[in-house]
Design brief:
- The chain has 764 residues and is α/β, with parallel strands linked by helices.
- It folds into three domains: 5-25 and 645-763, Barwin-like endoglucanases (Beta Barrel), CATH 2.40.40.20; 44-199 and 418-617, 3-Layer(aba) Sandwich (Rossmann fold); 213-412, Dimethylsulfoxide Reductase, domain 2, CATH 3.40.228.
- The chain is built from 32 helices and 33 strands.
- It has a six-stranded mixed beta sheet with strand order 6-5-18-17-16-7. A six-stranded mixed β-barrel has the order 25-32-29-31-30-33.
- Helix 25 packs across helix 27.
- The longest helix is centred in the middle third of the chain and has 19 residues, at 299-317.
- The protein starts with a helix and ends with a strand.
- Bound molecules: ligand MGD (2 copies), iron/sulfur cluster and molybdenum atom (MO).
- Molybdenum atom is lined by residues 195, 199, 415-416.
- Residues 651-756 form the Molybdopterin dinucleotide-binding domain.
- One of its GO terms (molecular function) is molybdenum ion binding.
- Residues 125-499 form the Molybdopterin oxidoreductase domain.
- One of its GO terms (biological process) is cellular respiration.
- Belongs to the prokaryotic molybdopterin-containing oxidoreductase family.
Length: 764
C-alpha cells in the first residue's frame, strides 16, 4: 500500500543505539575544533575545506550561512573567524556527493521517505531540476525552461493570486529576497510566510510596539561594554557559538552574566575559546556568574518578581529607576506601575520554580548595574505569551534606562544568517503601508494592501483548499512547521509544490499532485552571470549589512542562483502584463541593489557602501533613543502571568535543537554537550518525574498532547534523566512537531508555541 502524506512527513521511529554520558560543563575547546575538522574531512573535498576555512567571515570573503551572529567590526582572527557550527554548515552545504536524475530514477519518493532526516540530508547536493508528475512514483529530469513554464502555468490557472503561498527561509540573500517579494506582490498577493514567523516574530512584534523597531538595539561593541548581560531562553554554545567570544570579552572587561534557562547548557557555564591558543591550554572562562534554572515559561513571573522588588526599593530609597530617562523618553509609566502593584511577589516567585537565594543574587546584580543588555532567543519566543515575555524584558530595561546608551539594550539573537535582512527588504505578509507605497511609486503597480498568510494561516489555507500552489524559496517547510500530520495533509491538497533548494529534504517527499525541485547555488559557490561573478548581501542580527561572494566552483553546471530562478519565474508567469523587465536583474545584481536603495530605508549608496570591507549599519532609532512608536516614546506595557496549569499526570515540554543539527538539517546523531550520543528519539525528564511515573532510564515511552479536545501522539522515545526543573521535559524537533497543535501560537505574533506543549508520558 502506498504511504500517505502523513507517513512520509514523519521521521522513522527506529532507535539508533542511545549512549549517555555526563553532560559537559565546558563548551568550545579542542573537542569543538576536532568536531569541525572531522565534519570538514568527512564531507568536503580537502581543497574546498582549506579555501572555506580561510575565507569564511573574513572581510571580502563569504558570510557564514550558519547563523546570524555578527562578525567583529574591527580585527578578525587569523586562526579562522568561524566556529564548529559554521564548519558543519559548510560541510553540509558543500558536500562532495551530488545527486541528479540517476539518483531519482533509482529511488522512489516512498523509498526516500523511509530514510531518517540524517540520511536524507547526507544524500548529497541537488544537481539538476527534477519533476514529479501526477501519480508518478519517481522524480524525473526536467529542463529549466519547462520548469519555469510549469510554475507559470499553475500560478496563472489559479482563480485568485491569494491561492498561492510563497514561503521563504532565512538563508536567502537581500537581492533574491527583494526580487522574490516584488514578484509575489506584482503577481497580486501578500502570501509571504517565512521562517521568521516560527522564530523571532514575537520579538519583532513586541519590540515594534514598545521601542518602534522590530530589531535589537545593541552592537557587538555594546556587548563588550555591558555591566550585566542576561542571556534568557538561548543556548549559544550550540546555536551561536561565537557569541561566547563576545561574552568572554564582556567578562574580561568586568561585566557580569546571568543565564536563565531550564537547562544548565554547557556554553552558558564555561567556554574555552578555540581561537585562543593560550586558553586552549589553560582551560576556559567561567561565563555565567549566576545560573537560574527556571521553569519552562516562568520568565514573565521572574521579570515581574524583579520589577516588584525594584519598585519596593525605589519607593524606599528613590534612586533605583532612571527617572530622567523615564520622564523624557517613555510613555504609560503610571499605568504600568499601578498594574504592577496588583501582583504579589511570592506568587510570582513560586511560578518561576527558583529558590530565594538564587533570586536574591539576580536581584542584587540587576539593582546595582546601570548598563544592562538582555539577549534572548527561542526559549522566549515560542510560547503563547511570547510577546508578553519580551515586552516584560523591555519594561525592565526602560526602568533602568538601559536602552539607547553604550553597553545597554535589547539583543534578540537571530537564527538564520539572513532572516533579519529578508524582513528588511520586504519578505513580510503584513508589510507597512509606507513600504507598499514606495513599491507602487517605483514600479507603477498597486500591491495588495490585504495582509497575506503567515505560516500558520498558510497551513490552514492549504488544508481548507484555499491555497493550491506552494512555493518554497529555501527551507524545509514540512519538518519546520507545527502539527506535522495536519500540515502534511495541507501540502498534499496542493496542485503543485515547488522547492528551490540546495539539498534534498523531507519537504521534497511530501508533495502536491505535481512537484518540482529546483536546485540552486549555495552561499560558498561562485555565482557566474553575464557581468561576472556576482556579489550579494546579508544583514546580521545587529543590523550590519555586508557582502558575501562565493569562492568555490559550483558543484554542478546545472545550478541557477536564487536570483536567476526568481527572475525567470517572474518572467514566465507575468509575461507582458509585468511592468518590470525581470530578466535584466539576473545579469547584474547591482541593478537589484539600485532598486532596493529606492524602496527600502537606510540603503542609500548601497552599491558603494556594500563594498566596504565590514559593510554598514542600518539606521536604528532605539539605538539613538528615537522611538518610532505610535506615541513617539518608548512604551511601557502591561503583561499578565501565563494562565496554563498542569494536571498531575502532565508535563510541559519544550522542543529544542541538539548540538548536531541546524534546524531540520541533521548533521549527526550526537548532542555532545548534553552527554547524549547516537540517538535523537529521546525525552529529557526530571528524575523525580520519572520516579512518579515508574519510569527507568532509557525506558521506551509514548508521548501524547491534548489540545482543545484533539489528541496528538508521538511514539517511541527513550527517557533520559536530566537536570531539568520538575514538571518540565525536553525533546528534539522535528521529531516531536507532530505534538505541536496548529492552534497553539503566540498571541498577535502567531509564532507556534513549540516550547510549551502540555503532554503526558506513558510507558510504551
Ligand atoms: N547549530 C545550530 N545553530 C543554530 C540553529 C540550529 O538549529 N543549530 N538554528 C538557528 C536558528 S533558525 C535559531 S532561531 C537559533 C535558535 O537558537 P536557540 O533559541 O538557542 O535554540 P533552541 O534549541 O530552540 O533553544 C532555546 C533554549 O531555550 C531554553 N528554553 C526553552 N524554553 C524556555 C523558557 O520557557 N524559558 C527560558 N528562559 N528558556 C527556555 C532551552 O532550554 C534552550 O536552551 O539558532 C540558530 N543557530
Ligand atoms: N518544534 C519546533 N519547530 C521549530 C523550531 C523549534 O524550535 N521547535 N524552530 C523554528 C525556527 S526558529 C525556524 S527558523 C524554522 C526553520 O525552518 P526552515 O528555514 O524552513 O528550515 P531549515 O531547516 O533551516 O531549512 C533547511 C533547508 O534549506 C535548504 N537550503 C539550505 N541552504 C540554502 C540556500 O542557500 N538556498 C536555498 N534555496 N535553500 C537552502 C536545504 O535544502 C535545507 O534542507 O523551524 C522552526 N520550527
Ligand atoms: S557563530 Fe554563527 S555565523 Fe558565526 S561562524 Fe558560528 S555559525 Fe557561523
Ligand atoms: Mo529560527
Amino acid at each position: 500500500m502506498s504511504k500517505s502524506p502523513i507517513d512520509k512527513a514523519n521521521t522513522p521511529e527506529e532507535f539508533t543505539n542511545l549512549k549517555v554520558t555526563k553532560p559537559a560543563k565546558n563548551s568550545g575547546g579542542f573537542k569543538a575544533l576536532k568536531s569541525a575538522v572531522n565534519h570538514a574531512s568527512k564531507y568536503l573535498k580537502p581543497s574546498d575545506a582549506i579555501k572555506i576555512s580561510t575565507k569564511i567571515n573574513q572581510k571580502g570573503g563569504f558570510d557564514c550561512p550558519g547563523c546570524a551572529w555578527p562578525d567583529p567590526d574591527d580585527e578578525r582572527s587569523s586562526l579562522g573567524e568561524y566556529c564548529e557550527n559554521g564548519m558543519k554548515a559548510m560541510s553540509e552545504e558543500m558536500q562532495k556527493t551530488t545527486i541528479g536524475f540517476k539518483f531519482f530514477a533509482d529511488h522512489s519518493v516512498e523509498e526516500l521517505a523511509k530514510l531518517s532526516d540524517f540520511e536524507i540530508g547526507k544524500s548529497g547536493r541537488l544537481s539538476e531540476p527534477v519533476f514529479l508528475a501526477e501519480g508518478a512514483t519517481h522524480y524525473q529530469p526536467i529542463s529549466w525552461e519547462s520548469a519555469f513554464k510549469k510554475v507559470g502555468k499553475h500560478l496563472n490557472a489559479l482563480n485568485d493570486p491569494d491561492e498561492a503561498v510563497f514561503y521563504t527561509s532565512g538563508r536567502t540573500t537581500n537581492e533574491a529576497a527583494f526580487l522574490y517579494q516584488l514578484f509575489v506582490r506584482e503577481f497580486g498577493t501578500a502570501n509571504l510566510p517565512d521562517c521568521s514567523n516560527m522564530c523571532h516574530e514575537a520579538s519583532g512584534s513586541a519590540l515594534s510596539e514598545t521601542l518602534g523597531i522590530g530589531k535589537g538595539s545593541v552592537t557587538l561593541d555594546d556587548l563588550y561594554k555591558a555591566e550585566l548581560v542576561m542571556v534568557i531562553g538561548q543556548n549559544p554554545g550550540t546555536n551561536h557559538p561565537r557569541m561566547l567570544t563576545a561574552l568572554e570579552k564582556c567578562k574580561r572587561n568586568g561585566g557580569k552574566i546571568i543565564a536563565i534557562n531550564p537547562l544548565p547548557e554547557a556554553g552558558l557555564i564555561k567556554f574555552t575559546n578555540p581561537q585562543n591558543p593560550v586558553k586552549l591550554l589553560t582551560g576556559g572562562t567561567r561565563l555565567a556568574d549566576i545560573f537560574v534554572p527556571i521553569t519552562i515559561n516562568g520568565d514573565v513571573a521572574l521579570i515581574k518578581a524583579l520589577l516588584l522588588k525594584l519598585l519596593e526599593k525605589e519607593e524606599l530609597e528613590g534612586n533605583v529607576f532612571d527617572k530622567d530617562f523615564i520622564n523624557e523618553h517613555t510613555h504609560s509609566y503610571d499605568a504600568f506601575i499601578s498594574d504592577l502593584k496588583q501582583y504579589d511577589f511570592s506568587d510570582c516567585l513560586a511560578l518561576t520554580g527558583i529558590d530565594t537565594p538564587t533570586f536574591d543574587a539576580v536581584f542584587d546584580l540587576v539593582l546595582n548595574k546601570k548598563k544592562i543588555i538582555i539577549c534572548w532567543a527561542m526559549g522566549l519566543t515560542q510560547h503563547e505569551n511570547a510577546v508578553d515575555n519580551i515586552r516584560e524584558l523591555v519594561n525592565l530595561l526602560l526602568l533602568k534606562g538601559s536602552i539607547g546608551k553604550e553597553g545597554a539594550g535589547t539583543c534578540p539573537v537571530r537564527g538564520h544568517s539572513n532572516v533579519q535582512g529578508d524582513r528588511t527588504v520586504g519578505i513580510w505578509e503584513a508589510a507597512p503601508q509606507a513600504f507598499l507605497d514606495k513599491i507602487e511609486n517605483k514600479y507603477g503597480f498597486k500591491p495588495t494592501t490585504k495582509h497575506g498568510y503567515s505560516v500558520i494561516d498558510a497551513i490552514k489555507a492549504m488544508n481548507e483548499k484555499k491555497a493550491k500552489v506552494f512555493f518554497g524559496l529555501g527551507g524545509n517547510f514540512i519538518s519546520a512547521v507545527p502539527d506535522t500530520n495536519y500540515s502534511a495533509e495541507g501540502l498534499a491538497n496542493c496542485n503543485l509544490t515547488v522547492h528551490v533548494s540546495t539539498k534534498l529534504n523531507r519537504s521534497h517527499l511530501v508533495t502536491g499532485k505535481e512537484a518540482l525541485i529546483l536546485p540552486c547555488l549555495g552561499r560558498a559557490e561562485k555565482d557566474y552571470q553575464k557581468t561576472g561573478v556576482q556579489l550579494q548581501s546579508v544583514e546580521n542580527s545587529m543590523g550590519v549589512v555586508s557582502s558575501t561572494k562565493g569562492i568555490l566552483e559550483p558543484c554542478s553546471d546545472k545550478l541557477l542562483s536564487e536570483v536567476a530562478v526568481v527572475c525567470n519565474i517572474a518572467h514566465a508567469t507575468l509575461k507582458e502584463r509585468s511592468k518590470i523587465d525581470w530578466l535584466q536583474y539576473k545579469d547584474d545584481y547591482n541593478l537589484v541593489r539600485d532598486d532596493i536603495q529606492e524602496v527600502v530605508d537606510g540603503f542609500q549608496d548601497y552599491n558603494k557602501r556594500i563594498k566596504k570591507p565590514s559593510g554598514f549599519y542600518l539606521p536604528n532609532g532605539a539605538r539613538e533613543r528615537t522611538f518610532k512608536t505610535k506615541t513617539g516614546k518608548a512604551n511601557f506595557s502591561l503583561n499578565k502571568l501565563p494562565e496554563w496549569k498542569l494536571k498531575d499526570s502532565e508535563l510541559i515540554m519544550m522542543t529544542i535543537r541538539s548540538h548536531d543539527q541546524f534546524n531540520t538539517t541533521i548533521y549527526g546523531l550526537n548532542d555532545r554537550y548534553r552527554g547524549v550520543f547516537n540517538e535523537r528519539r529521546i525525552i529529557f525528564m526530571n528524575r523525580e518525574d520519572m520516579k512518579a511515573r515508574n519510569l527507568e532510564e532509557h525506558q521506551i515511552v509514548n508521548l501524547t498532547s491534548e489540545f482543545n479536545g484533539k489528541v496528538r501522539k508521538a511514539n517511541n522515545f527513550k527517557v533520559v534523566g536530566y537536570d531539568i526543573p520538575k514538571n518540565c521535559c525536553a525533546t528534539y524537533f522535528p521529531e516531536t512537531n507532530v505534538l505541536v497543535p496548529i492552534d497553539s501560537y503566540a498571541h498577535t505574533a502567531k509564532t507556534p508555541a513549540s516550547k510549551s506543549i502540555i503532554i503526558t508520558v506513558e510507558a510504551g
